[in-house]
Amino acid sequence: MPPRPAPPAPGLPRSLADDLRARSDDDVVALLLARPELATPVPLDVTALAARASTRVSAARAMDRLRVPELQVLEVLAAVWTQEGAVPAERVASACGSEPADVDPLLERLTALALVWGPRAAITPLRAAVEVLGPAPAGLGPPLVDALGARSPSRVADLVEDLGLPPAGDPVTGLRAVAELVGDRERLGSVLGGAPDGVRQLLERLAAGPPLGAVETADRQVRAADASTPVEWALARGLLAPAGASAVVLPREVALALRGGRVRERLSLTPPGLDVTERDPARVDAQGAGAGAEVVRLVHELLRAFEAAPPAVLRAGGLGVRELKRLAVRLDVTEGQAALLVELSRVAGLLADDGEADPSWAPTPGYDDWSAGDTGQRWAHLAQAWLATSRVSALVGTRDERGGARTALSDGLDRTAAPDVRAAVLGELSALAPGTSATLASLTERVEWLLPRRGAASGGRLVAWGAAEAEQLGVTALGALTSAGRALVGGSGGGSGTDDERRSAAAAAVEAGIPPPVTEVLLQADLTAVAPGPLVPDLAEAMALMADVDSRGGATVYRFSPASLRRAMDAGRTADDVLAFLAGRSATPVPQSLEYLVADAARRHGRVRVGAAGAYLRSDDAASLAEVLADPRAGSLRLRSLAPTVAVAQADPGQVLIALRSMGLAPAVEGDDAELVLHAPERRRSPEQPPPRPVTGQPPRVTEEAARALVSALRRAGSGTAVGSAREDRGSREDGGSREDGGSEATAQEPQGPSPVEALAVLREAAAARRPVRLTVTDHAGRRRTSRVQPLRVEAGSVVVVDVASGAVSRVSVHRVVAVAPSRPS
Questions:
Q1: How far apart are alpha carbons 393 and 341 in whole angstroms?
Q2: Within 10 Å of residue 357's Cβ, how many Cβ atoms?
Q3: Backbone φ and ψ of 69, nearest 5°
Q4: Per-residue pLDDT tens for 757-788?
Q5: 608-611 and 668-669: which strand pairing?
Q6: Most CB within 10 Å of its CB: which of 17, 278, 606, 782?
């Protein structure tokens, strides 16, 4: 526990609220810009602002923005403060093992974030920040009073006697005397002077951290005269404390004394170096542009597949494992790459749940606009969505906390740190010269130095995953940032500006790195067509309808077959349409072999027609129908001849079509009017809906204009206003403070009264500092009562207080608190 605070010196702030009141408007504006959660909802006054900044959630968010040296200074300050109270800046520097000139800028940064407060002569860490750091900051154990606080009074008296200290009147006083002894380097040295072999080595090993050690029956009672081992000798003198039945812990005072008063040997002031390699920037850009164009093509193919046959949404949400495997095979990519493409389509707003009773994943209307753009524009849209998303596709296939497999597009793939880690990786690469790459190991170390609470939390996996995704997307190539990636993140040489400006610059960089789309193919006698580059959209769509991709590489090879031509004719193309289109879009004449194939496909198409009965078959060629009836592969259809040119089947038309096509025929569907039913492929779309928002845990950004307006409102509220008091003033009346009306409802821009979290923060601070407060509460009848109380302890949802005037002790539910403020002497 922190030491009992002494009364503040005249003129010094007593709390964070007092410190914030003394800051300039520019300093408070900077705080709101750095910690936007403090401005939402609008705090009522400076006390409410300080209370919100003092919550654990808000403190943890601010600490997530710290670099390693800043976090180390905060740990040092927390460790020293629990022993000594408010700490001078010089003491912080010595405890860090560094010069004041190195530590002062770090303290200024912590002060600007309101994680510490007070002047240089008496710096105090935010209590919530100390709690977030945990019980062992910088590898130190708990204070001795906490470590031995559970001992009985008789055992504390024995410890005091064994150390040769004068008897204490109570256990707390006795433990403080022991802590004072073992925390003094000279006095501790005198105690250790008579220690048996192994004691000092044991204590120094625990002082280096971690402070815990395993030992059997650690909680046994040991007197100095009975100690027979180094552990027992240290336990009998309070140099070690039991931490359960099978572990001991080194008290913080002992560790600090053994460390020579320093919490750390030194600060990690310099970031780890990057292991870099110089590469040809033109080669990097060319390879990155090729990867980017390939991603655009794959996303387009994925969405075309989903518009033709939308896969079902799993009952628990997401895309089925089998569907992902089929997609990977169709796109000729790994399942991990397919997961990234699916997730990318979703976060870019191109894919969504269609919202039907039996929901499916289908392209959104935004897909049509996206597909109409050029390759660079489409890539920039995808890359910008990837940069901002909190979803991590590499988690697909891993197990969640309950042992279930995570699927693509399902919940559970968000990681709040992912956008920050991604931005840090690309930011470090953008600071290097164009074409310069860095190894993954050195990047991981650098990001963990920049974001120790975020980058290191995943064991470096987020860095590795982000780097791999950037390479697949073409944001990086050969480990170096491409020109398009540099423009996207606004790094050195890439400029800055708005999102639209960066996206336009990135699109232009991709377009500059890929060949222009071609408008013609090369037809060959082996029934193939060669596309010597990316095709213009209309030609690419037509070729996908009439032929199948045979191979990809520097050029794409399409192959014509009876099945692919039947697909085109099912969509309404005639033989003349197909041949005319190919003749007009080929740089070479249409080969005779292809003309024969198209003519044969047209002749066979619709020779056998399928209509609804169960299903019936009709053909103008009796020989063709007889051939079907005699084929053993048609046995499952249970066909029966009604006439030489008509047969019926005991199966639905869809099954009949599949069976006949597997026999090498080209059947067509016949309508009620005996005409062929020809239709273009169905284009399924989901309703218009926004893409999923990143799950970062961060509130909306605050503009400088809004922050300055809020600071002006806080100044007008007055330095002595209580949390919630303005709300109280609006509703109170002269009849003892009861509210006659229902109270006006606060608008979205109106300051709000204290939330339970804010009220708890103020009360917890007052209880820890042993300071009275003015507390306004409502009773069961809705009447208000204000009294001066001393909070004793804060528990979940309630606070135990003692009335300063009457001495009565009571328990108050936090939801009944209307206002709370530090009590000032009358």
A1: 9
A2: 4
A3: -65, -35
A4: 677 777 877 777 777 888 888 877 777 888 88
A5: parallel
A6: 17
